[in-house]
Amino acid sequence: MVEGMSLEGSFSSDFKENDKGVERRRRKPPWGCGRLSKLEMELRNPAVSINVPTDVITGILSRLPVKNLVRFKCVSKPWNSLIDGSYLSNLQLRRSFTSNANIKLLLDIYSEFDEYKAYSVDFDSLDNLEELPRPLSTTSFGVSSRIFGSCNGLLAISHDEAGIALWNPSTKECHYPPKLTIGDMYDEIILGFGYDVINKDYKVVQMLSSGKLVMIYSLKANSWKRIKDCPYEITFHVSQDGSVHWVGVGNDKDDDARVNDDARVIFGLDLGIEEFHQLPGPESDISYKNFGYRSVGLLGGSLCVFRVIYHRDNIVLWVMKEYGVMESWTEDFYVSRDECWQWCTYYTRAISYSRRGDRVLLEDGGRPRQPAWFNLDKRTREVVDIPGAPKHFNAIIYVESLASARPGNH
Fold first, then answer.
1. Please, how many CA atoms are within 13 Å of residue 22, restricted to the half-sphere of its CB?
2. Is 313 a domain residue?
3. Region class of 390: left (phi > 0), else alpha (psi between -120 and 50), else beta
4. What is the distance between the alpha carbons of residues 296 and 28, in angstroms, rounded to a whole number?
5. In a domain, 240, yes or no
6. Distance between alpha carbon 21 and the CA centroid of its chain, in Å?
7. 189 in a structural domain
8. pTM for this one?
9. What are the F-box domain coordinates in residue numbering (predicted)?
């Protein structure tokens, strides 16, 4: 068995005395284990007599809260290397997703003093309110800051003047990419954030709503580069969950689409090959010009989108069970303002299912926003009430993780 991280012991077995004094006794790797990796060599502590395999220690650590792991980094250099490494980070993240654990709800709140404040609570219980040191929190008149992406425990924040920050609220680590300016007085700046599984890299997307000047930031390379323009004009976007998808109209849009700001195309950006692609929408017997899409995102790990039927004051949530397959679109539920919503339903956003799956957390289209639970069976609405927190806030789901915001390998 390969020796791993040591827990306790004494110095007696590793030193011997001779006529020249005390010298260190060489220890050989256990028979049959071959060469030890660099990490295993670092984790071996010759000053102990009881040893535990590295994979056992890693498995134990992957089950601990991230806050504890951050504190353990100061135990020793080997522990710091292990906790900072990608292997433990990925293992801890996989366990969290598999068990649906360590999920947090972040409350992004604009205070009356031109400042944003961030708080987090446990998603299941909605308690243990904790204030977090939010980056890019200070604003002024006409200057805004918002969290526009959440992926694997990293949050992406934009600021009209200061640029962008990538922030891990669990480890408090933060990185500021080089500032990029592609402003246009007639175009809105569109942002996206996600993970490139091919190159193991976190990427930020910034472009104009017209589809021009598409720039991609690579955290691994810590640099921006321009790619081909987007073939669609973006009319509505919600990217707060690592889903780099939008809705809009194609270059062949008709005048009605331009005037009504209709979004009839669902499309995404493949961060691996850095190319845009269109996705098939749900089948419908509704006239093509009588509906539009809103609020594309992820729900329960699947792509979802709200579809608006004009002249009706309700919206229907569709979920794509198998990515890219039109037949897998499933009508999940609908929301009516007359029934349970007090604001315009056009800008409702689905955030997450409850653990039991009988409710879905929605964010309404009002200003300020007010998240609420929508009961799928009873069709009732219950405003989220968190003790000690304001009722109005922008809601973001994230998972506690060790994901690094530093440039380099991930």
1. 5
2. yes
3. beta
4. 58
5. no
6. 58
7. no
8. 0.81
9. 46-91
Are the C-beta atoms of residues 220 and 201 closer than 8 Å to each other?
yes
Asked if residue 178 has a cis previous peptide bond (ω within 30° of 0), the answer is no
User: What stretch of H or E contains 278?
Assistant: strand 275-279
Please give the pLDDT value at position 71: 92
pLDDT of amino acid 20: 46
With b for 16 or more beta-carbon neighbours within 10 A and e for fewer, the 252-262 pattern comes to ebeeebeeeeb
Cβ burial of 213 (10 Å; 0-12, 13-18, 19+) is middle
**Domain boundaries, position 370:** 280-379
pLDDT at residue 249, rounded to an integer: 83
On whether residue 45 sits in a domain, the answer given is: yes
In this structure, which amino acid lies at residue 223? S
Give the number of domains in the chain.
2
- Phi, psi of 125, rounded to the nearest 5 degrees: -95, -20
- Residues of the chain under the 50 pLDDT cut: 1-34, 36-37, 39-40, 42-44, 46-50, 255, 257-261
> What are φ and ψ of residue 345, in 5° steps?
-75, -10
Identity of residue 268: G
Boundary-marking domain end, from 72, 97, 122: 97
Three-class secondary structure of residue 341 per DSSP: coil
Nearest Cα residue to 129 out of 139, 121, 117: 121
pLDDT at residue 313 in the model:
67
Task: In whole angstroms, give the CA distance from residue 53 to residue 179.
Answer: 45
**Last residue in a domain, options 97, 114, 144:** 97
In a 13 Å sphere around the CA of 172, the CA atoms on its Cβ side amount to 7
Confidence at residue 1, expressed as pLDDT on a 0 to 100 scale: 39
The per-residue pLDDT for 14 is: 40
DSSP state letters, 38-55: HHHHHH--TT-SEE--HH
Q: Nearest CA to 142 among 118, 164, 114, 165?
A: 114
Taking residue 103's Cβ as centre, other Cβ atoms within 10 Å add up to 17
Q: Give the span between the Cα atoms of 390 and 393, in whole angstroms.
A: 7
Q: Which residues pair with 6 in a beta bridge?
A: 51
pLDDT at 242 (0 to 100) = 54
One DSSP character per residue, 116-140 reads: EEEEEEETTT----EEE--SS-B--
Neighbours of 403 (CB within 10 A): 25
